[in-house]
Each structure stands twice: as structure tokens, then as C-alpha cells.
Amino acid sequence: MPSALPLGDPAPSDGLLPATCVDGAVDRTFSVYVHIPFCAVRCGYCDFNTYTASELGSGSSQETYALAAARELEFGAQVMRDSGQPERPVSTVFFGGGTPTLLPASDLVSILGTVKEQWALEPGAEVTTEANPDTVTAESMRALAAGGFTRVSIGMQSAVPHVLKTLDRTHEPSRVGQAVAWAREAGLQVSVDLIYGTPGESIEDWRTSLETAISYNPDHISAYALIIETGTRLAAQIRRGEVPDIDDDDHADKYLMADEMLATAGFGWYEVSNWSRGEDTRCRHNMAYWQGGDWWGAGPGSHSHVGGLRWWNVKHPAAYQQRIDAGTSPAAGRETPDAQARQLERTMLLTRIREGMATAELDAGGRMAVAGLIADELIDPVQAFAGRIVPTLRGRLLADAIVRRLLGF
């Protein structure tokens, strides 16, 4: 089942933002995230806010969703203006889910059109959609590119049939290569997403997935360790002993293999789980998250952040549709994290990326911890002496330990 929303303060029905959210806004990037909450099948490992046709019930539908999302974006643009936010063009747009490409390409292009009308896109803006390989065609890729999309992130996960079966993925492995080729022909940048550590996946299975992904010659590869989320079908299968549990040592071995093979193939890491062929093929949308930009998240369960204020929408598409039809904010709650929480989050995010974190942002205790982190080969000594905290390969495997020591807990 989808994970629960966080607790927080009630969100006002008019959605207006506090005046403090304006402070420093002109110096922050502004992005848009659009959540498409539909999937053909619920994967056993997934706890995202997604719904199959049988789970939707009355009050919402895939057919009318594009209009609902567009209306929230119109509402959001008005809220930003009424709250005194400066005019800022959108630097990145990301359609995630769920499976965005379950909607017709024309619907995705229409939603993007609303972003352009309400906020405008900055020149060279990055516009990405996630896609399952079995929900795209050559025609849909061409339509996305013609409609302003610049990038597609394809959910490959594995090249090995029994691993895909354990993950409840429905596509044939060969379909990924075809989807990549269609995206290339349409002129889109291509990322492929992989998952390692699936129960029953051998080290050779993982090697096969990496070799296959590299053979498609994408611009970008993401590789995420499988996390078993409470309440998912896979968690129940592990609890009942039907499949083996995940293993931290296995995860580490597979991460090291990924980094070595991807580096040999010309990919450079820029975040713990992400590799690209160059700076111009990084996922700029994710970089905006990691570096503290502002964004409006549209759709059920979407999270937003502007000027330190965070809010999240109601989860179920029917409840979301009801708010949209009423012309009120779909936000379920919001919060402004205190200084300690902001420092924790910033440290966690910045110490995962290649640019790292400035030591000047640390308190005295954090700066004193730097020498020990160098000695334990967790951070790059050259970068540390230059005033930045950048993890080594060993440090990427122990990223949480770096954060704990820098923050003294």
C-alpha cells in the first residue's frame, strides 16, 4: 500500500504562502513536479502513491486526470502570484509516478502546456517523464519530443526475467532496448533505471543487467538498492519465508560492481545512486531537489517546497479531484522545519553529491569531525582541504555514517 503522509499543520484552503517564503526566492531555482498516480499493475516492492484501475473507485479517472492536474497548476501559479512570489521561469519539469506514460502522450503534452502558460519555461529547460518500456511506442516518443519533452527515464530495473518476475515488472527485457531506440530517434535524452539486491538476484544476474544497460548507450543510469518497505507485498513474502531477505553485504558488492563497470563505460557518478556521461546529461531536476531549490508538486500525494515551507497533497485521486472541483487547495498539511531539521536534511543531501558540502556550513563540532572522516577514508582529503565534504567510494557506501559524525549523533 502507499506510504502514509507525514504529520503537519493544517493547510489553508486558499493555499497562500507566508510572506517569509519570498525571502531569497530570486536566488533559488523553481521547478515543477507532476505526479501521475496510475499503474497497470502494483509492483510488489512499491509503496509509492499509485493506484491500479481496480483501486481507483469512483470520483476519479485516468481520462480526466490531465484536466485536474492542469487546474492545480493554474491554481498554483495564482497562489504564487497572490503570495508575492517573484516571477521565475521553470527550470525543470518532471513527470513521475506511477506510470506517466499510461496516459496518452497528448495528455502529458497538454499538462506541460499549462506549465508553459502559467510560469513559462526558461531557455533550455529540462523536461523529463518516467516511462515503463511496455507503455511507449515510437509514435508516443515523437509526440513527447514534439510537445517539448527533452528527456525520458525508462524503468528497466533488470535484464533478467526471474528478477523482473520477483519485482512484478510486466515488460519483456528486450522491450527496453526498443524503447531506448525510439527515444533516441525522437531526439530525447535517455536515462535507464536499475534496481539491485532483489531477493534471488545473483552477482552474475546483476552483471548481466549492467552490461545490458550499458549496451543501450544511454546518457544516464540510475542504480538503486532495493529497500523493503513495510506494508508491501514483497515485505510480506519475506516475512513468510517465501523469498530470501535482502543482504547489506550483497548490496555493497553490487554497488561496487556498478561503479566500476559504469566508470569503465564512461559514466561518472554525480550522486550516490546516479551516473551520467557528463554534466549536461545529469538529471537537473533531481539536482534542484538536492541543492535546495523550490518546486511545486502537482497531483495526489505530491510534495512541494517554497522558501522553507513544505506541503503535501491529499493522497487518493478521488479526494484530490474533489478539492480541485471545489477550487480549493489540494494540500493536506504543511510544515516549516526548524533549523536543526533543515541542517540535517541539507547535510544528508549535499554529502551525497559530487559537489559536496562546504565545511563552512558545519558547526565547530562538524568541522572537528573532518579529520577523522579523512583518516577513515570516508571523504576526499583533497576536497576537504579545499573546504568541501565529498564522499569517497567507501564514503558513498557509508553515507549515513558521514552525516552522523558531521552532526554529532
TrEMBL record:
<dbReference type="GO" id="GO:0051539">
    <property type="term" value="F:4 iron, 4 sulfur cluster binding"/>
</dbReference>
<keyword id="KW-0411">Iron-sulfur</keyword>
<keyword id="KW-0408">Iron</keyword>
<dbReference type="InterPro" id="IPR013785">
    <property type="entry name" value="Aldolase_TIM"/>
</dbReference>
<dbReference type="InterPro" id="IPR007197">
    <property type="entry name" value="rSAM"/>
</dbReference>
<dbReference type="InterPro" id="IPR004559">
    <property type="entry name" value="HemW-like"/>
</dbReference>
<comment type="function">
    <text>Probably acts as a heme chaperone, transferring heme to an unknown acceptor. Binds one molecule of heme per monomer, possibly covalently. Binds 1 [4Fe-4S] cluster. The cluster is coordinated with 3 cysteines and an exchangeable S-adenosyl-L-methionine.</text>
</comment>
<protein>
    <recommendedName>
        <fullName>Heme chaperone HemW</fullName>
    </recommendedName>
</protein>
<dbReference type="GO" id="GO:0004109">
    <property type="term" value="F:coproporphyrinogen oxidase activity"/>
</dbReference>
<feature type="domain" description="Radical SAM core">
    <location>
        <begin position="24"/>
        <end position="271"/>
    </location>
</feature>
<keyword id="KW-0963">Cytoplasm</keyword>
<dbReference type="InterPro" id="IPR006638">
    <property type="entry name" value="Elp3/MiaA/NifB-like_rSAM"/>
</dbReference>
<dbReference type="GO" id="GO:0046872">
    <property type="term" value="F:metal ion binding"/>
</dbReference>
<keyword id="KW-0349">Heme</keyword>
<dbReference type="InterPro" id="IPR034505">
    <property type="entry name" value="Coproporphyrinogen-III_oxidase"/>
</dbReference>
<dbReference type="GO" id="GO:0006779">
    <property type="term" value="P:porphyrin-containing compound biosynthetic process"/>
</dbReference>
<keyword id="KW-0949">S-adenosyl-L-methionine</keyword>
<dbReference type="InterPro" id="IPR058240">
    <property type="entry name" value="rSAM_sf"/>
</dbReference>
<keyword id="KW-0004">4Fe-4S</keyword>
<keyword id="KW-0560">Oxidoreductase</keyword>
<keyword id="KW-0143">Chaperone</keyword>
<comment type="similarity">
    <text>Belongs to the anaerobic coproporphyrinogen-III oxidase family. HemW subfamily.</text>
</comment>
<dbReference type="GO" id="GO:0005737">
    <property type="term" value="C:cytoplasm"/>
</dbReference>
<keyword id="KW-0479">Metal-binding</keyword>
<dbReference type="Pfam" id="PF04055">
    <property type="entry name" value="Radical_SAM"/>
</dbReference>
